[in-house]
């Protein structure tokens, strides 16, 4: 886990130009029940209208920490997209992913606060409303799932690292943590999980976001059992046949595998023997369509040679 810490860009060897692109939006941006802080990274090479990635930190972290320890902003310099970094102000740094408010479309709490940041970015920062994507780790990953479920009209795709099913954290306490869910003790049928997503926005009839799941089998914060429960949930929502699952072993790194379910509305990256999976910006950008090269198409089972790869600290 990463403690909250201030941003000291130059002391960390980050150039003044690079640091200048990361800033906090301090003016009001809409309903914000839990007083989330709103940060953005705007590259000098921003392509307008800008594709936008919302990046959500884990518990015991912050937006500046996630900015420093993932590569979304560095890649934004290459591809010209905007990055929104919401930041929890709770003592443990967790997001609300379990209240009735956050689990409802336009209900309130943290999910609506993040959507209001996106709406602000569309109005003020040249964000393209047709190309908004969300990613996050642990509590941030769980919120990414909630946003994909409650706001399918806003987000085109989600990349979830060590997350949990939508509704799994329901009943969490004031610290927004549900120990039973985190331990993988909350299980439901695919239909029941799917109903929780549909209940988040009952009137929605359009195309839903595609989902990519990253999870370590030894995750010490959010049990790997939640990877399986998320597959049940999203396969039910998206109509995905989980039995159609060609897998590429050893991609993108040793002990990982890439599984493309039923043509690709859901993709899974289980990581054997891994605790918290580090963020893989390269594959996320491919998934979002921000980068141009498609994901590999695996035969039923194949084990390639592992290649060196840049990863984030998370």
TrEMBL record:
Gene3D superfamilies from the UniProt entry: alpha/beta hydrolase
GO molecular function, one term: carboxylic ester hydrolase activity
Signal sequence residues: 1-19
Pfam families (alphabetical): Esterase_PHB
Gene Ontology annotations for the cellular component aspect, listed alphabetically: extracellular region
Positions in coiled-coil regions: none
UniProtKB keywords: Hydrolase, Serine esterase, Signal
PANTHER family noted in UniProt: FERULOYL ESTERASE, UNNAMED PRODUCT-RELATED
Name of this protein: Alpha/beta-hydrolase
Organism: Exidia glandulosa HHB12029
